[in-house]
Structures are given as structure tokens and as C-alpha cells.
Amino acid sequence: QSVLTQPPSASGTPGQRVTISCSGSTSNIGSNTVNWYQQYPGTAPKLLIYTGTQRPSGVPDRFSGSKSVTSASLAISGLQSEDEADYYCAAWDDSLNGWVFGGGTKLTVL
Amino acid sequence: EVQLVESGGGLVQPGGSLRLSCAASGFIFSDHYMDWVRQAPGKGLEWVGHTRNKANSYTTEYAASVKGRFTISRDDSKNSLYLQMNSLKTEDTAVYYCAKGGGGRYYYYGMDVWGQGTTVTVSS
Predict the structure, then answer these.
(1) Rounded distance, CA B92 to CA A95, Å?
(2) How far apart are CA A96 and CA A104, in angstroms?
(3) Chain segment B30-77, per-residue pLDDT in tens
(4) Residues in contact with B112: Cβ distance below 8 Å, sequence separation at least 6, in sequence order
(5) Inter-residue contact A79 to A12 (CB < 8 Å)
(6) Contact B47 A103 (CB under 8 A)
């Protein structure tokens, strides 16, 4: 059971906009910023969004992050086939004194 | 270019020990927190722990699941990170990733660049 809650799956067609939610609590998302990671099967995770809304260089602006109280969201606009991957949210938890992750969302591009 | 290369994984019996290493290059190692994250087969990501940077006295934090069994250390002179794993359990079986802490000497926002991972299998 993950501390942060994500839907196990999401899907969309090419060109569509999809959002992936991440629900937490006051000790993690409510108090700290959120990072999002993208992971293809058999490869290492890649940072997609950090501190809630910032994109590392090289990440397309089709990816955006937002936060509201104890929840966060990752939005992907103009969906492309290469976006098919697993996505994880993460936040520092002040009560656990460590990073906590969501269980991951498998995004399928139909 | 930032590079992180893990090594030391393998097969170990329950109750045994293993030491993982992570060789870093392409950034000022001593300025950054360094993290270990693991992923059990077919499962999600689990933070193992981290070592803070020189500016924060190299202090460490651990996940409850490994506290008291795992020890994270670093050698800034060798740009290397280590994970000493003792009293291993079957549930420690996973791919172990080292990750560079994002930010800099006085700012840390979590894991930004990740290594390719090394596989640890705990089985009799």
C-alpha cells in the first residue's frame, strides 16, 4: 500500500490531453513539493517534473504539473505514442522523514 | 554529462550481506545529496535512504523497512556512493538505483538523475 495514491492505469488517444492524479496528506503533498517520474519497462526512472511545476531541460512543455492542497496532478497534452510508460509521483513526508512514492500509473496510448 | 553507474548486485542468501557501489561523474559530487531507491520485480518505486552533502554534514536518513540493516556512505574523494546491506531478507529482492539529489549545495528537491540500476536477489 503506497502512501501516495495514484490510479493504476490511464489511457488516451494521440493528440488528447490526459491527467494523472496523486493523492496524499498534510504530511507529504500538503507540506512539500511533488516530483513526477517517467519509466519505460526495463529502464531507470527519468525526472519529468520537479518542485511541482518545473521541467528539467529536455522535457517537452507538453508535460505540466500542478498541486492543490494535498493532491497533485500531471497533465500530458498532445499525447504521443512515446508517452506510453509508467508514471510515478513522489514527495517528502515530514512524518516518515523520507520520500514516499505513488504506486505508479501505467499510461496506454490507444 | 552526469553519469551514475551502480555495481555489486548479485544473488545472496537470506541473512547475508552485500555492498553496492555507485560511481558518479559529470558533477560536483560533494555538493549533492545522494539517494538509493529500489524497485521489486513488477512493483513500484521505494525510497531506501539518502546521505546529505558535505554542507549538511553527510547525515543520513533511511526508510523504516531498512533502518538498522542498511547503511549508506559516501567517499567524496572517489565520487562514490555505497549501500551496505546486512541481514538481507527475501523482500529486499529488487533493482537498486542510485540517484543524484537535485538542486545544489544548499537546496535539495529529490532525485533527479538516476543510474541504470543493479539487481539484488535474496534467495536460498
Answers:
(1) 23
(2) 20
(3) 999 999 999 999 999 999 999 999 999 999 999 999 999 999 999 999
(4) A47, A50, A56, B99, B100, B101, B102
(5) yes
(6) no
Nearest to B114 among A44, A92, A102 (CB): A44
Contact across the interface for A102 and B111, Cβ inside 8 Å: no
CA–CA separation, A97 and B105 (whole Å): 20
Answer for the pair B116, B7: CB distance below 8 angstroms, yes or no. no
* Best B109, B112, B119 residue to mutate vs chain A (most A CBs within 10 Å): B109
C-alpha to C-alpha distance for B28 and A68, rounded to whole angstroms: 35
For residue B87 the three cell numbers come to: 541481514
Residues of B in contact with A46 (CB under 8 A): 114
One-letter identity of residue B91: E
Residues of B in contact with A20 (CB under 8 A): none
